[in-house]
From TrEMBL:
PANTHER family: AMINOTRANSFERASE CLASS III, SUCCINYLORNITHINE TRANSAMINASE. It is found in: Cytoplasm. Gene3D superfamilies: Aspartate Aminotransferase, domain 1 (3.90.1150.10), Type I PLP-dependent aspartate aminotransferase-like (Major domain) (3.40.640.10). May also have succinyldiaminopimelate aminotransferase activity, thus carrying out the corresponding step in lysine biosynthesis. The modification N6-(pyridoxal phosphate)lysine is found at K250. InterPro entries: Ac/SucOrn_transaminase_bac, AcOrn/SuccOrn_fam, Aminotrans_3, Aminotrans_3_PPA_site, Class-III_PLP-dep_AT, PyrdxlP-dep_Trfase, PyrdxlP-dep_Trfase_major, PyrdxlP-dep_Trfase_small. Belongs to the class-III pyridoxal-phosphate-dependent aminotransferase family. ArgD subfamily. This is Acetylornithine aminotransferase. Its EC number is 2.6.1.11. It catalyses: N(2)-acetyl-L-ornithine + 2-oxoglutarate = N-acetyl-L-glutamate 5-semialdehyde + L-glutamate. It comes from Glaciecola siphonariae. Its cofactor is pyridoxal 5'-phosphate.
Amino acid sequence: MQVTRETFNQVMVPNYNPAAMVPVRGEGSRVWDQEGVEYIDFAGGIAVNVLGHCHPALVKTLAEQGNKLWHLSNVFTNEPALRLAKKLTNATFADKVYFANSGAEANEAALKLARRFALDHYGEDKDQIIAFTKGFHGRTFFTVTVGGQPAYSDGFGPKPGAIVHCEYNNIEAVKALFSERTCAVMMEPMQGEGGIIVPDPEFVKGVRALCDEHNALLIFDEVQSGMGRTGKLFEYMNLDVKPDILTSAKSLGGGFPVGAMLTTDKISQSLKPGTHGSTYGGNPLACAIAEAVFDVVNQPEILDAVNHKEALFRAKLEEINNKYHVFAEIRGKGMLLGCALNDKYKGRAKDFMTAANEQGLMCLVAGMDVVRFAPSLIIPDEDIAEGLARFERGIAHVIAND
């Protein structure tokens, strides 16, 4: 059956508006479309393809596990899930793991656990969740309401209650919302969709202290910032602040759908049998692939190289900006970077993304004012150089056509 981009308009619900080209094959940090045109991938499937496309270790694991066992149900456990959970707990603050299919589902579990823990230990009045404007935690109704972007949650009827928002990186604003009713704070230790915002470490420590003072849980959404993307396995390790609950997805599966919620022994006891679940969560195929991703990513030589690659990006982007004067700043950390547009080009991030795509570079936006890069952690230096050369040509095209 022949399909094209036009087929999308015929058969798909119109909540997306994908690019004109249709990718059909990927290898490493390169992708080819139906016409055989090659692209360099700085998008990474929105910070998912942590090891690029078709990494040999993942392909091998997919084939091996695919010939053994794909799916059971949570009536049974399985070896890949247990091995992956053991590796995650050994490498982090956590004692216990819950597996889901996505970041949204991991966050849904985290929020439900925080509410249930508060109910078990402090009573039904302790139900308030504090979150942040411009935050993003998924598209379920609970997670999209906790996310601080009303455009994503408006228009679907009454929202879940007892959720309040304040400005990110503003400890006084957080303090003003806290009370004995607060059961949890949910935050990204680096905001992704909201514009690649790196917090002041003292702000994060201040939030941790407020949670401790008010017997509230601190939930870190590391769906985008985790699994090596900032040069540590998880970003909380760079901040010297331990959460009570942490969520992971995206890079965790390297392109295969899988999510995880990590927490402590004590807190985990509030998710007793029957209180929460997932049909596919923790299935052996997903967990085997995620274990293979973990084994590759959690090596010093991989994590240490992230800082080197970030430096290459920043040096070339500074050179481009000295020539074209389009960015106010380069934000982010590791292989999650944002080119924040200056006042002259505000609101035009999609124009730059589209122009880059036409030059053979796949990249992203984070809101209307930030062009986002989330490439593979192992992208070759020469692909960084060539990709940024293509990005520069895209910038030149936008400016020339103004």
